[in-house]
Amino acid sequence: MLGRNIKLENIMNDLKVGDGAKEQRPFEYLLKSAYVNDNSVHADAVKLKAPFPIDPEDELRILLQSIGFLDLTSLSADDTYATISKLCCSAVKPVHDVKSLAGDENVEIRTASVCVYPNRIQDAAKAMSLYTSKPLPIAAVAGGFPSGQYPLLTRAAEVAWCVEHGASEIDIVVDRSLVLLRKWGELHKEVNTMVVAGKGAKIKVILAVGECGSLENILRASLVCMDAGAHFIKTSTGKEVVNATLPVGIVMCRAIKIFYSRTGKKVGFKPAGGIRTYQDVLEWVLLIKKELGNDWLSPSLFRIGASSVLASIVKRIAVLDNQIQESRKSETTK
Ligand SMILES: O=C[C@H](O)COP(=O)(O)O
Q1: What is the ipTM of this complex?
Q2: By its UniProt entry, which Pfam families does this protein fall under (predicted)?
Q3: What is the fold of 8-332?
């Protein structure tokens, strides 16, 4: 038996709220009463759309920091060693020297991890060893990615296999039918089984929000996945028609906040899928700052999953770097 079979109604009775006091209401009550006001969430999301203009030095700092949040991803059916090697090379040296920074600050700019299919884990490990003496974590997708429509036994075995072959982070998918049919006990069991199979690896649970039916389902599924042991909750696989959106991000962050206030446990958040531009990244960073605060602005609690946003960030960094240097020059010649 790979996982502990925990009954949802028995699990949360003794959880604590943030101040250490006992939470009286059981988790099941919280789950049943969890409610989303869709209109107000959508209105809050619109406010995140207009954070510009930002001071160039602040923007540069945020974009450089955001590289460190990236799970630099390649999840294509035609990935080969060559693709993964290129990915790893970009991950360990994502930008050329930024002249407006001190030299040693440049050395620290790397992505949080690389994210690949299980069969490419060893390619990533090999390539990483060629490019750096301090390899980045390798994340693998598993658990019947991207659909989750496979037996739990093989999905859990896939998680264990990935860990044995060198992945320290596993991005698993949920079976969307359990969310749509609100089978929360079964969802809890599935996620917990895969967490246990990961033997301590960081488990990011992908809800595939575009296929969850409603914001309320997303809120409830987020709570269940965290209670089942998810270290991160993640929006999307990148393969759904609708992937990461700001309203969904708000709801998932609020679930993280509720869970934290009940348990004192900080669960991470990973938007992924369709994040393509540096403006998207700025919006997600702002969302985290507003909803969860600066504590979450760290790779241990915030990741961005993206296969093709890095080029946009790097291009913008070069523009800002030039702009800052020009303005420093003109300051000194005054
Ligand atoms: O987990 C990451 C996603 O697969 C990335 O999606 P993307 O290719 O739309 O950036």
Answers
A1: 0.97
A2: DeoC
A3: TIM Barrel (3.20.20)
